[in-house]
Request: fold
Amino acid sequence: MSGTGSAGPGTARPRLAATRQDRRALAVMTIAHGIQHFYVAGLAVTYPFVVAQFHVSYAVLGLWLAAAGLLGGLLQAAAGLLRRASARAVLTAQDVAMGATAMLGAAAPGFALFGSARILGALVSWPQHPVGSAYLSERFPHRRATALSWHTAGGSLGTVAVPVLMSAVVATAGWRWALIALGAAATYWWETKPAPGTVAALEGTRSRYFRSQWRGGWLCASPWIIGFFVFRLFPTAMSLYNSLTHFSVLQVPRFAWFINYIARVHEPLFWTSAFNTLSR
Reply:
C-alpha cells in the first residue's frame, strides 16, 4: 500500500501526536465531538417530559425532529462550500450557539418555542463532523485513520455518557434544569479550544484531502444513500403519487389530482381525528 498514510520498508512509523500542540489539537477535537454528541443525545432524554408537559403527541414531536434532522444534514453536505474558514472559529461558534439553543429550550413556555429551539440547534450543531474530520485529516496526514478513530470514539463516549448524567439531573431537578446544564457544558467548552495559531485553516472541496478522498467518502456513504433513496425517498414519492390518483392494484392508476384530499376534508370524522392526533 502506498501514499502518505503508509510507511515504506525500513521506515519508522510516524507518531500520531509528536508535539504538545498535536496532542492538544487531537484531544480538543475528540472531546469536542463528545460534547456535540452529548448535546444531541442529551436532548432526547428530555423528550418524554416535554411531551407530557406541553400536551403534544409524539407525532408532532417527530415532525419537528424530522425538520431539524433534514436541515442539519443539508448543512453538513454544504460544508464543502467553506473556503479557508478557521476551524477554531467555526467550532467555537457551534458550541456557544448549541449552549444558547439548549437554554432557550429550557426557558420555552410552550412547545412551539421548544421545537424552534431544537431546529435552531440543528442549524448550529452541524460543523463538528465535516470540519473536525477535515481538520484532523489535514493535520495528521500520515496517521489520518488513527486520528479519525479517536475523533469517532469521542462522539461515541458522549452518546454513552449522556443518559446517566442527564437522567440524574432530570430526576433531581427536572428537565428544564437538565437542559440548562447541557447548555452550560456546551458553552463552557469553547474556552478550551486551541489558540488560533495552533489550528490550521480549513479549505473546502478543493483542499488536498477532499481531492484525494472524495471517492472513498462516496463509497463509504453509498449504503446510506442507497438506503435513503430505496427505502425512504422512493416510497414517499410513490405514496404522494398514488394519493393523487384513483388507484387499484389490478388497474392502471388514473390521475384524480386533489379529489382524494378534498373528499377526506369533507368527511365528518376528519377534523376530529386530526385534532386527536395533534393534541395527544
Remarks:
- DSSP finds ten helices and four strands in the chain.
- The longest helix spans residues 208-243.
- Strands lie at 85-86, 201-202, 245-248, 251-255.
- The two ends are 58 Å apart (CA to CA).
